[in-house]
Amino acid sequence: MAIKRGSKVDSSFASSSMTDLMFLLLIFMIIATTLINPNAVKLMLPKSANQLKDKAITTVSIQDAGGGKYRYYVELENVGSREGIERALRARLSDQEEPTISLHADKTVEWDEIVQVMNIAKDNGYKLIAATQP
After folding, report:
1. Using an 8 Å Cβ cutoff, are 81 and 126 in contact?
2. Global pTM value
3. Please, are residues 33 and 46 in contact by the beta-carbon 8 Å criterion?
4. Each residue's pLDDT tens digit, 8-66
5. Is the pLDDT of residue 88 over 60?
6. Which residues have C-beta within 8 Å of that of residue 109, sequence separation ≥ 6?
7. Where along the chain do its domains lie?
């Protein structure tokens, strides 16, 4: 009488669970990298040794578009012109006490544009902070 073994050892490797794990890791990495680098206006800020720790309510950005043209942003919304900046700031800061604005401008933006935004802040009673790189 022949004795047979009841169980045979299967020496093959099932890689389906490994591919599920790799897929989940890939999705996690894609989500994590998009959260680390939020969409923002890319600006080359001037350098400064003095850094102010005041908290701004909103930001105004001026980006050099080349050829003497500029793009104006309030937060990340393109407002088109200096008049658009004033309208957007009034809409956002109408109910704030002592509103503070952070001004971000490229190094290549002419001083005239920066001063015009400063005048908008002064005329409306807003506190203005010029953003720089440390």
Report:
1. no
2. 0.59
3. no
4. 777 777 777 888 889 999 999 888 877 665 555 565 666 666 666 667 778 888 888 88
5. yes
6. 62, 63, 64, 70
7. 58-130
Cβ-contact 112, 64 below 8 angstroms: no
pLDDT value, residue 27: 92
Instruction: Tell me the CATH architecture of domain 58-130.
Output: 2-Layer Sandwich (3.30)
Give the amino acid at 6.
Answer: G
Residue with tokens 């015009």: 116
Closest CA to 129 of 27, 25, 45: 45
Percent of the chain at pLDDT exceeding 90: 4
Provide the b/e sequence for 11-35 (b: ≥16 CB within 10 Å).
Answer: eeeeeeeeeeeeeeeeeeeeeeeee
Per DSSP, helices labelled H in 4-106 are 16-36, 82-93
Strand-strand pairing, 58-66 and 69-74: antiparallel
